[in-house]
Amino acid sequence: MIRDILAIGLWSVVAVLVTYTLRHYLFTLNRVFGRQRQPYVDIGVGDWPRVAVYVPCHNEEKVIGGMLDALLGNDYPADRFYVVPIDDRSTDGTRQIIEDYTARFPGRIRPFIRSEGKPGKAAALSDATREAEAEVLMVFDADYLPGPNLLRQLAAPFFDPEVGAVMGRVVPHNLNRTLLTRLLDLERSGGYQVDQQARMNLRLIPQYGGTVGGVRRSALRDVGHWNEDALAEDTDMTYRLILRGWQVVYQNRSECYEEVPETWPTRIRQIQRWTRGHNQCLRNYAFPLLGIPRHLRFAQVIDGVLLLGVFAVAPVLLLGWGLATALYFMGYEIRPGLIVLFAVASYSTLGNFAAFFEVATAVRLDGSRNRVRLLPFVALGFLVNLLAVSRATLSRRSWLAPAAAGPTWEKTERYRAGNDNAANHAAGHDTAGGPAGGGQPS
Amino acid sequence: MSSATGSLTRPPREVAQLRLRGARGGIIPKHRSMIRLRWTPGRATRAALLALTGFAGVMAALPAVGRLWGGLFQVALPALGLGDQVGWHRIDVGSLFSIAIPHPVVAGPWPGTGHFIGVGGFAALLVVLSLLLPGRFLPMRYFLRFLAAIQTVSIGYFAFATPPFPYPLPGYMGGLLAAGMAVLALVPIALGLGFYIFDHTLWRQLLLTVLVLGHLVVLLPLQALSHTWLIHHASLLVQPPLFFVFGLLVEILVIVGFYGWAMSWEGTEIPRTQTLGAAR
Amino acid sequence: MSPLLGFLLLLLLAVGWTTLPLLPALRELFSPTDVDPLTMVGRDNADISRFARHFRDYVQANLRQLPPEGGADDSFGKLPDGTQFVRIAQGHAVARAALPDGTQDRLVVLEHPTTLPGGEQFRLEVWARAALTGGEGATYRAVLGEDVLRLGAHTTVLRWVHSRGPMDVAAGSTLYGRASSEQGIRLGRDVAFERVGAPVITVGDAMPSHGPPAAGELVEAPIPEDARRLGDHLRVEGDFWLPPHSVVDGNLVVAGELRLGAGARVKGSVKAHRAIELEEGAVVEGSVVSERTIRLGPSTWVRGPVIAEDSVTIASAATVGARTQPTTVSARTLSLAQGVAVCGHLVTQEGGHTDLAR
Fold first, then answer.
1. What's the pLDDT score for residue A128?
2. Number of domains within chain B
3. Residues spanned by the domain of B239
4. Residue B275 in contact with partner chain A when CB distance is under 8 A
5. A171 touches chain C (CB under 8 A)
């Protein structure tokens, strides 16, 4: 009897893994062979909307200068955008740097200084955007490096009145530091080049990632502003927009450099933060989604639920291993196919649970080659992620009401040493081998 | 050259070449966000044919593989001091296909006190090692602890259980090798789904298939013999971790290793746009 | 050999054999060859005249390094990077026989107003420093015109063409890549193109209106009961038809098909998941976006952009954008009737064309 119950549990786990594996295979096929939907990326001229670019900061002195330089070097019409660095009680030189830029670029830099209120990115954004004048509110993390054309590319989808949020592609810049950074580069490739783009192609639910993206002001107000208690305000915003009837657009062409964690403890903190936030959204939005709102297609509902569950898959897999072990000792015949399935799942990246073939496909489409040889090492990262995600999933913050203290400033460690070459590289970098601007004919 | 239907007609081949070439001869590639492959009947047919042919070929070769493994066991078992008995386990797939799978007939002893001490000490050593490894080897630390955890569960089981163990060694070996043969048969199918569909040349597709299959054909009996020796000497205590960690997971590791290498090979359509060279 | 030794050898063999397929991974780990971040494309694909600007910079910079040319004769040379060029000093109508040998395989610099005979195949760029009138049936890799540029009938441009002055593209021509002008482009009938950009693009003789036509008598369009207001737009599930001479104030999102009757007006942008059709004289004071097709009827006016994931068809006398507010029409395929005027960019993924009809 107990054995039968455990066996049912085990096969349920198998069903979940098979579902996600099939989903990712379909995404891979679609990305490789399907028509790529990027309907807004060719908009070169238009009556560009007014844009406010928000950069939430808490102790970002190492990187904020580079970010502001990159934004100011953007080719978006200067009279149509301004930058709002949000300083939330930084204790380092962040505020001084922001004030310096404000003095040098009055009107273009409009800082928002917080000295009270809930800590955390969501709360900071909520405060700062409440009185926004611009039509489109873009958000970048302080350590990102937007290229000169990025704002225009991200603003273009907002000509579509249904679009509530836009997300671009995040590209690691510091991948040459450790094995971890190289594995995360593979993960990002799989997640954006294949996963997000396939969801865009198939008209499912691309995710707004909270950085390298933007939200329409009227949509933000329509869904009740940022959720200050959300641990993942980006995922939370995605679902509130979708459930209300707005669209979220992913634009694969709109790329921006970021820094990925270089050490395992930093990575663990990052993924645990994502897990708690994501699981919070799973709790809040799974049932409303399963109610199949009239304006959503069935495929969108299914994809939306599966997307909510990506971080819950890790403890499910761990449970599966546990059940398999228990059943083994109870004399239950563990079919080899099950072990194979679990093994294949162990070569997935976490964050989107992209299977290894999805990662390999993405790297190939990126025009890279040899980095995909690191695929066997993905299993190393998977084990760390599996345990980190499982611990976070089992934590109170994932499932119960927000802790009384509310969210805090949680962010990835910064590695750049001030306004350095990395910022210049992103601000002015051109196609491979070419300086920006003139030189060689096409 | 225009068409009233609203789409540009295909230009002559030479003109098409000139369109895509930069002024100084280089090809101008599409941006990576827009790159894709065409799903043509030719590509689909080739992928399907390769996969099905490969599958059929492997199935046809399995009896010979079984005999090869049987012969290998007959030579290796005495050299390893494991006797000389090779058992054969017949598997029928409906009425169409039947294969005899060899396996060493070696006893896996129920653990005695010495085994508990030895294997327990080994598990403790794994934990100590995991604590001594520097922080940047975190995944290895976790792996060692994971291995130690499974071993500890096994120790706990055998501490309280009574014979017989549900999985005697000969049966476990037969099962491992049967599963291995199933993996062999599925390799062409898996490659069909994940490799043949890409833009690699035919000879590269065949090369990968041969390499993977050839490697696994050699690996599986080596694995079986290693497991047999370890279980025979260290007792059934080590069979669960060997099954869970060093069983089919090793085959998958090998396949992923080959697959990652093969996906780095140049293709005929998707251009390489990232420069390769020594790390700066 | 002792059994223990035998086992150790076996283990070594097994571990070694298992490691073999991991060697490429280990090699890449310890001697990385592919660790650069993805190179970001800093130049914007939406910048239509990018190639032309780069070419101008390139050729000017290279020519500056050469000793100054004198005289009225044609001359050959080599740019510092090895590119062969020919400077055609003779102006006006140039007979085929008068073109220097090897002209078509060199970068061509036309110093004076020139009329070419036609039928040439220029394998490298042509830089016309004065007005250029191309002949019928010529093929150009790329053309940069610093003044007026007229492409003869059945011309083919392979990569790009750009003019500082007005550009006239005669009937039956094919413009692959980008065609741009800093003043305006007139497309003849049966012209095929990929991307076109200019302050004004007309098909045949057309003049863009300066703004939306006067509204006239309009009645408020009946809105379905189950329509919802989301932020700044009204959402309608299913199809929606605006009756003739009706108006909707604000943005509209329709989950089905959207049709604007003759003379109807939307004071905002519209989006439909399926087809959009604007009947004669309809006006949209914003963007028109469809996940399928868009048809702009005769004499319609759209501020822009116009974005369709499938096809866009624009009927005669329709206008998109305004001189003071250029915009973009983007679609998989695009069909323009005679008399259409678009201010800004035309962008297609699979090609556009102008109608055959006169």
1. 93
2. 1
3. 41-110+163-263
4. yes
5. yes
